[in-house]
Amino acid sequence: MSGNGTPLLEIQNVSKYFGSVIALEDVSAFVRAGEVTCLLGDNGAGKSTLIKVLSGVHKPTKGKYFFDGKEYNFSSPRDALELGIATVYQDLAMIPLMSVWRNFFLGSEPTKGWGPFRSYDSEFAKRTTKEEMAKMGIDIRDPDQTVGTLSGGERQSVAIARAVYFGAKVLILDEPTAALGVKQAGVVLKYILQARNRGIGVIFITHNPHHAYPVADHFVILRRGMVYGDYTKAELPLEQLVQMMAGGADLEVLQHELEQASREGGEEAEALAETAQAIESELDELEEKGND
Amino acid sequence: MSTDTAPAPGAAPPASDERLREVSRVSRLLSRPELGAVVGAVLVWVFFAIVAYDNNFVSWATTAAIFNRAAPLGILAIAVALLMIGGEFDLSIGSIVGFAGMTIMVLSFPSDGGGFGWSLWPAILAALIVALAIGWFNGFLVITTKLPSFIITLATLFIFRGLTIALTRLRTNRTQLGNLDEVEGFALADTLFASQFEIFGARFRVAILWWIGLALVATWVLLRTRQGNWIFGAGGDANAARSVGVPVNKVKIALFMTTAFAGFLVALIQAVQFTGADTLRGFQQEFEAIIAVVVGGTLLTGGYGSAIGALFGALIFAMVQQGIIITGVDGDWFQVFVGTVLVVAVIFNNFVRQKAAQR
After folding, report:
1. A57 by DSSP, 3-state: which?
2. DSSP 8-state assignment for residue A99
3. What is the CATH number of domain B32-358?
């Protein structure tokens, strides 16, 4: 699916200032349909501001925003959403006290009947929730279950499935794996690939190169509000990506310290590394399937 | 992005899932928020049926008295339940009862007594508009200042109670106005809001029908409309709801206007029933309404609750009140009893909810 097609969503030379603070300076990035663009950056690199620009919350101070070849100037996130640019925020994804199906359709409830007797078509909502989740490869047991009883990874997955169902063409994911354990993060990464395979352009924001590397086609690395690097996967081995993320020398010191610690940690650390490797190979497999 | 129903072609019948435990009807019932209040109502009734059997507690007359007492409180409680599920408080509802009641009275009072001499229905309509405006004002202040609604409506509680007293006295030199039955249009209002009907020789007030009707409408809205879904969403997590396009501010303002409407309705019912109003009408009813709502299983933090629960909460409140009156226990103890019931109910509800979450 990946190719050299025209970008579905593109920003060119975007800058965003808050008073005297330069949050973003001259940032360019794009995503194509059926591709995953990864935005990487450490804390304070400007990721959050960039998400808000992409999702229509902030207007860029300078620069241009293109969707499907046309230039846009959003005044609210609603405008972006109507074009099919959906954002899934890490913390605002779901309402814990509400059931899965009520969450799934919150804000876009299906209705039946007419006039004052128009009611929420709960049968349709429950059935569709279960079907849509199944399409993403998630098997929810009971749509009446409250979201509070789901795990963090499952919640993110419901949010992604919801965005896909409501016609997202571009999916912006704000650190969907940040608060998750290794296995859970793997589950979410799997759904990112599923969404990509359905022809959606995914912008995946993270500070974790190990999460980014298996799923991304394209990397944009942010540092101090500027684009520090822009690479395709072929151009960039994982080690180099990790290095760039933290910035060369700092990381070498850190790595050294970590090695020291892991030597002391012994078997435990080894077991962890094995788990990580297993998941990575699983993801590689999935990806190959997706590319067929 | 179709939101209209389009039944999927050949939708498969729900396949059974081996990880799904067959959950019994009983335990499904247990997860309903109103369960605690229904069980509580039964327990309180049984308690008084035993303790006050000799005082004729188990009789149609007492039942009628309980329902007549519960109706006005229940009307307020149902609206407050919706608002609390939506994540906000309204402490000013008692003051709205007072303000709306005096609006009706002052406007319809003869002009030689300091009133405006309107006929009744225009006065009722004016009071409705005034009440809705107060509700809108509460909501608007909460939304724009982003202060807790507890503070905002605590302020408007005092403002509108004070205005009720000050304006009424300024205009009429009194704090009580009567003789509403002499105003043109009273007969119809009396039929609609203060008439009585007889069941087994006991006299039930028509307010009970308003109360139950309102509970049914509120339940339908909550569970079967998209606006209901928005109310749960706004109370559960306003930011999350906003991010998926729920008009949270509009929902909240509408909810404040709903509680104000309930205040107006109670003011109207009471003004017609007593053919007059007092500037202190509705005093402290905001607390009674909140108690009924909480006893009814609604969470103080929003996002969870039911209107049927509030209905039963008001019923419990009225049963306790009536039970204490007819057993001849000193009325001074009533508040002690209410406070105790409140604490027990909340503990019980939390317990049930935790059980339900583990099902």
Report:
1. coil
2. B
3. 1.10.3470
Residue predicted with more confidence, A65 or A167: A65
ipTM greater than 0.95 = no
Check CB contact of A119 with chain B, cutoff 8 Å: yes
By the 10 Å C-beta count (0-12 exposed, 13-18 middle, 19+ buried), A178 is classed as middle
- Measuring CA to CA, how many Å separate B267 from each of B95, B102, B170, B216, B322? 10, 8, 21, 21, 22
For residue A99, the chain B residues in CB contact (below 8 A) are none
Angstroms from A130 CA to nearest CA on chain B: 9
Model pLDDT for residues B128-144, shown as the tens digit of each residue: 999 999 999 999 999 99
pLDDT value, residue A249: 52
pLDDT at B189 over 70: yes
Is the pLDDT score of B205 beyond 60?
yes
* Contact (Cβ atoms closer than 8 angstroms) between residue B195 and residue A68: no
Of B7, B223, B304, the CB nearest to A97: B304
Q: Rounded to whole angstroms, how far apart are CA atoms B171 and B89?
A: 32
Nearest residue on chain A to B11, judged by CA atoms? A127
Burial class (CB in 10 A: 0-12, 13-18, 19+), A282: middle
**Every domain of chain B and the residues it spans:** 32-358
Distance CA B22, CA A20 (A): 61
Of A47-51, A264-268, B162-166, B199-203, least confident by mean pLDDT is A264-268
Tell me if chain A has a CB within 8 Å of the CB of B243.
Answer: yes
- pLDDT for the residue numbered A223: 84
- pLDDT at residue B6, rounded to an integer: 41
Q: Does A89 touch chain B (CB under 8 A)?
A: yes
- pLDDT tens for each residue of A132-185: 888 777 777 788 888 888 877 788 888 888 888 888 899 998 888 887 777 778
CB contact under 8 A, A109 and B229: yes
Going along chain A from its start, the domains and CATH numbers come out as 9-94+150-254 (3.40.50.300)
Test mutation, B20, B222, B226, B249, chain A, max A CBs within 10 A: B226
Query: CA-CA distance, B123 to A191, in Å (whole number)?
Result: 61
Q: How far is A282 from chain B (nearest CA, A)?
A: 25
**Which residues share a beta bridge with B199?**
B202
Give the pLDDT of residue B7: 41
Instruction: State how far the alpha carbon of A146 is from the alpha carbons of A141, B236, B358, in Å.
Output: 11, 12, 11
Write the CA distances from B92 to A202, B1, B72, B284, B313, integer angstroms: 49, 41, 16, 9, 20
